Amino acid sequence: MALDSAKIQEIVTKYGRNENDTGSSEVQIALLTTRIAELTEHLKVFKKDHASRLGLLKLVGQRRRLMRYFKRKNKDAYMKLVDALEIRDNI
User: Fold this and answer.
1) 5-85 is classed in which CATH architecture?
2) SS3 for 29?
3) For residues 17 and 24, is the Cβ–Cβ distance under 8 A?
4) Is the pTM of this model over 0.85?
């Protein structure tokens, strides 16, 4: 279920502040969103995979905490990121 390095690099270049930026909140939220989307598709097929469902819930919680932090620190960039990723602003 892990992302391959080409996909990670694509996300880093799209959302990062520079090409080697892997630790900023924008990149971490984008990576978590991609993993959440892949796990959601997996769980549509394998409905009884409860271990993956637990992992999905952990990822959603982690992304929610990061989004709360990012919204508090830089609200304008947060709103741009939410629009770009097409996720809800429920914080």
Assistant:
1) Orthogonal Bundle (1.10)
2) helix
3) yes
4) yes
